[in-house]
Description:
Blueprint: E1 2-7, H1 11-28, E2 31-36, H2 39-48, E3 56-59, H3 69-73, E4 82-84, H4 89-97, E5 102-103, H5 111-129
Parallel strand pairs: 1-2, 1-3, 3-4, 4-5
Amino acid sequence: MIKVLILEDNRKVLEVIGEGLKELEKELGEIESLNFREGKKAREFVQKNSLEEFDVILLDRISQDAMTFHEAVLDQTRPKKIIAISNTPAYNALAEERGVSRTVQKNYFDLNRFKDDLKKEIKNIINFKQPS
Length: 132
C-alpha cells in the first residue's frame, strides 16, 4: 500500500488530487491518503507521528489557518519524497531551497494538467523506491 500525506487547504484542489490518486490506484495498487487543511493540525500530527510512514508528501505552502505547511514538515522528513504544489512559484522555490527537488505548480485554470503532472511525479517517487 502506498501512503500519501496531503497538506492542501483548497477543497477543489483536494478533489482533483483525490481523482488523480484513484486513477493511480489502477496502476500502482492501493493508495491510502491523509490530508490536513490547517497548519496547526498538521504540526500537531507531525509532533506525534513519524512522517517516515508516508511514501509521498504533497506540500502546499499556505494553510487554511494562515500558517505555513512548510514549517510543519520540511525539517521532519527526507525532501526526496516531498512534492511542492503551490500555485505561487516563489513558494515552490522556498521549498526547493530547503531541499525539495520535485515541484508541480498548481494552475487553478487548468487543474486537469496539474493532476496529470502530479500523477507523473508521484509515479517517479514510487518507482524510484521500488527495487529494480
